[in-house]
Amino acid sequence: MTRRDPLDCERADGLLAAWALGGVEPDEHRALRRHLAGCADCRTLGAGYLAAAEAIPLAVEEVEPPPGLRWWPWSWCC
User: Fold this and answer.
1) Could you read off the pLDDT of 8-41 as tens digits, one per residue?
2) DSSP letter string over 34-71?
3) What does the alpha-carbon distance between residue 43 and residue 77 come to, in Å, rounded to a whole number?
4) pLDDT bucket at 62, cuts 50 / 70 / 90
5) Dist. CA 57–CA 64, nearest whole Å
6) CB 55 within 8 A of CB 48
7) In the list 2, 7, 30, 75, which could disulfide-bond 12, CB 3.0-4.6 Å?
């Protein structure tokens, strides 16, 4: 994506979903910010994706891993 390659709402939608999960590259983030500056619909959509992404940890039960999974990188030597 280049500076002269503006986003349309369809492309912004895909990037917004990735952005909400922390998965966009810096150039994609810049293009997305430029698009969002002028697109209220995509700002609303992005807020929804972000709210959904923030709720993911609340949707699962936190469990303690079994002791066999507790491995430290230095455990083989010490």
Assistant:
1) 999 999 999 999 999 999 999 999 999 999 999 9
2) HHHHT-HHHHHHHHHHHHHHHHGGGGS---PPPGGG--
3) 52
4) confident
5) 15
6) no
7) 7
